[in-house]
Amino acid sequence: MLTGLAPAKINLVLEVLGKRDDGYHEIRSLVQTISLYDVLSFELAEGISLDCTEPSLQSPDNLAIQAARLLREVSGSEKGVKIGLEKRIPWGAGLGGGSSDAAAVLLALNKLWGLDLTTSGLVGLGAKLGSDVPFFIYKGTALVEGRGERVTPLSASLPGWFVLLLPPLPQMPGK
Fold it and tell me: What is the pLDDT of residues 40-82, one digit of tens each?
């Protein structure tokens, strides 16, 4: 069994450069992971399943499930996994929780299934799942461009503490 943390992120700077022909926006953003995490566990199993603490996210459309299915399809692996997801990142708040969960699944299953995919290979798969997923393969601080698929990790360190305040949202668990 493997366990992992999927961090939330904030956009420190977000520049929207225009709309692309594919319907996405061209962006340039300085993004930073923060110390708010979803907790995931991974156990070899027959199929692919998800056990989530937030019942409304327990669906085949969940990015964690989609990531596992995509990785199995692309790799040709016949292995399965039972994914446990303790949801701590408020969903619908723009903090990238679903994308971070998907990246955590790609990273963990690459190890658990013994696939040896490269970081760039995982980033490419992540881009198929969502615009924020490639960033979460790297984590930390990064310059993100395009629709989110071009990620340049940065070694910048931000001193001090930051407080993130979220207004109550009707779809947030427990609210």
Answer: 999 999 999 999 998 888 888 899 999 999 999 999 999 999 9
Q: In this predicted model, which residue has the larger pLDDT, 39 or 19?
A: 39
DSSP-based three-state secondary structure for 171: coil
Continuous H helices in 7-88: 63-75
Set 38, 101, 132, 139: catalytic member: 132
Q: What are phi and psi of 30, to 5 degrees?
A: -100, 115
Q: Which residue has the tokens 């949801």?
A: 87
Domain 2-154 part of CATH 3.60.20.10: no
Among residues 9, 87, 101, 139, the one annotated as catalytic is 9
Backbone phi, then psi, for 146, in 5-degree steps?
Answer: 75, -130
Distance CA 162, CA 142 (A): 17
Judge contact between 103 and 140, C-beta under 8 A: no
Give the residue among 91, 88, 41 at the shortest CA–CA distance from 62.
91
Which secondary structure element, helix H or strand E, spans residue 112, and what is its range?
helix 97-112
3-state secondary structure 136-164: HHHCCEEEEEECCCEEEEECCCCCCCCCC
Q: Are 140 and 131 in contact (CB under 8 A)?
A: no
Q: Is 9 a catalytic residue?
A: yes
Is 132 designated active site?
yes
Domain parsing of the chain, residue ranges = 2-154
